[in-house]
């Protein structure tokens, strides 16, 4: 489960970086920035739901 969470975090940061690159290249006129940010939001929501499911199923315990 730890690897899945780390992979999602890397994908979220990569999507955010690509959105920044599109914003700088297109100067805010293209739809690529909005699409990259929408992907980031979707990945973040999916990660949140996976974490909730992991806590509920016992795959992730609350101890440090």
TrEMBL record:
Keyword Transmembrane: yes
InterPro entries from the UniProt entry: DUF2909
Bilayer-crossing regions: 6-25, 37-60
Keywords assigned: Membrane, Transmembrane, Transmembrane helix
UniProt name for this protein: DUF2909 family protein
Species for this entry: Azoarcus indigens
């Amino acid at each position: 489960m730890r690897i899945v969470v780390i992979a999602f975090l890397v994908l979220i940061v990569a999507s955010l970086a690509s959105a920044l690159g599109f914003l700088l290249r297109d100067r805010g006129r293209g739809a690529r920035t909005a699409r990259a940010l929408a992907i980031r939001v979707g990945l973040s929501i999916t990660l949140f739901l996976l974490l909730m499911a992991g806590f509920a199923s016992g795959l992730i315990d609350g101890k440090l």
